[in-house]
Amino acid sequence: MTTSKTVKEVAFVYWLVMVGCSSALDLTVGVITEAGSLNSSLIDVAFARRVNYNWRVLQGHTLSYVHVNVSSCSSHQAVRTVCSESGLSCLIGVGSCSLLDEVSSLSKSLQLPLIALPTGLCDSARLSKDMTIVGSHSSENIVAAAASIVTSDSIISSVAVFYDGLQSTTVLQNLQSSLSSAGVSSLTFRVDDTVNASVTPDLVHHLKRLVKKKVFKLLLFASPRNALSVLRLAREAAVMQQNYFWLVLDTGLSKADVLSVTPANANVALLRGSVFTECTAAVMDVFPQCQTDWLRTLDARFVDAVEAMAKALNDSLLDPGFSPGNASCAPLRHWTSGSTVLNRLMSISDYDTQRGLISFNSSTRHFSSQRV
To answer: 0.85 cut: is pTM over it?
Structure first.
């Protein structure tokens, strides 16, 4: 008992020394989200419960955020708004490939580290550059898995591929190449129009054509909103009977989302980057009523990103000369400490596992996430 008490006392004193010997800082993160991609209440809870209520993550300091919410057609608005803010230490971006591409360029100019959380399947090589780390499953692995699944039946000669404009054309081309190399042709359909990025009514006509052509395997990758709209229309067009197989690629959907718009006897599968088999303590901090079927991978990845960025900032504060939050757009001035935080984030070897539980080794300064 005496030994245990002594250890606790020493740990508490160490914490007081760590807090007392350094001035408390309020570090600020720029959170850029595409409209409809992330619930604003989730952002509040993630920062509060996983960082500011947890002294082990950001010792003696607080982490606040500036939320910039933009439409899918307003990436330049995001850039202007971020440039109008002062005192930012880093960025977290959630949205389409095109939005994150713009934000990635901005992070390079400002030398602000960015964790990019795509709501689509983006070209990983294009996005992972300079000051950006992609906190998502590999699009290359998802494409390879999808092609393997839909071509597993040797009698299948063609597959219908539905996508929207928020996805990477490179990923689409890679998918077509993978199907072609397996001897399967692909019939591609863009499901949204270029005006308001919503599902076009013409899709019903294309779905009915597939019934006549007897194409029974269908692959869908689109934003969560558009993906659910496509599945609803497919149900109405009788392209969800038992002889049809739909493979939906994870762009931020939960299993419950898909089940809510499909018949009970439909053959629909959701291909996710990781399979959630349990609600960990970290995830339940933010989702107390956690149920794996209802948990979106995108939400879990955001919680993971907030905690990872906080830990990287905390570790960077130990480096002499580190000065958080002095980036500026006008005149454009580089934040010389940005590379310090980036180096901490670069050591997250398996960050794309999308889990909220991260361990940090202070001696090696390496992050790791629990793989499921």
So the answer is: no
